[in-house]
Amino acid sequence: MAVKKQSLLHTLLSFHRYIGLSVAIVAIYLSVTGILLNHTNDIGIDKNYINSPTVLGWYGISHPDYLNGHPLDEHWISKWNDDIYFNQKIIGQSTNPLRGATSTQHFYALATSETIWLITIDGDIIEKLNAPGEKLGDIIRFGQQNKFIVIKTEQGLFKADADLVSWQAIEDNDIIWSKENTLPADLSSAIFTQGHSISWERVLLDLHSGRIVKGGIILIDLAGVLLILLAVTGTIIWYKRRRRNAA
Fold this sequence. Notes:
Blueprint: H1 2-37, H2 40-43, H3 53-58, E1 68-72, E2 75-80, E3 83-86, E4 89-93, E5 98-103, E6 108-112, E7 115-119, E8 125-130, H4 133-136, E9 141-145, E10 148-153, E11 156-160, E12 167-169, E13 176-177, E14 181-182, H5 185-195, H6 200-209, H7 216-246
Antiparallel strand pairs: 1-2, 1-14, 2-3, 3-4, 5-6, 6-7, 7-8, 9-10, 9-13, 10-11, 11-12
C-alpha cells in the first residue's frame, strides 16, 4: 500500500511539474499584460493611438497614404469617411461629398453637395443651412466673390446675399474657388490616428484575452484549465505529504 501511495505521489509530482512547465510562459504573459492593464491611465496607453499599418491591418483598418482637403487661411477643412475636420478636430458628419471651404466677412463657411456650414475661426459650428438644391441643384463648386459666398450648380453660378437667404445668378468674374490640395503629412497622420485607429490599451486588452490572433482565445482558455489543474495537483501533493509527515 505504501508503495502504491508513493507511486501515486510520484505520478502527481511529474504531472504537476509538466503542467507548470507548460503554462509558465503563458502565466508570465498573462501576469505582465494584466499588470499593464491595471495601469493604462498611469502610463498613458489609453490615449496613445496606433498608426502602424501592420498592427492596424490585424483589425482590418487601412487608410490611404495621404488625405486631401481645402486650405482655409492657416487652417484646413477635410473629410475622411463621414467625418468633417477643422484641422484635426471633428466638427460634424456628412455622407455627402465635401465641395470646398471659404472665408466671408464675419465667419468661415464650408459646403457639401447639399449643405452649407457656417463656422467660427476656431472651428465651432454656427449654423447648418440647406443648400438651395430644389431651386438651383446640388453644389458642384464652392467659393467667394468679394467675401460673398458663391456656388456652382448644374444650372450655373450663383452668389448669396450677406444672410444667405437669396441667391442671384452671376458671371464668372473674380471668383475665388476653393481648391482641393493634399494635407500636410503630419495632419493626415493625426486625422487617421485620432479618428480611425485604436489605442494601445485596446491592443493590450486583446493580447491579454487572446483575441489578437486566430485561436488565441482557445489557447488562453486552455492555459486557464491547466492553471486550475496546477492548483489542484499542488493542493493534493501538499495534502498527501502533510499526511505522510504526520504519520
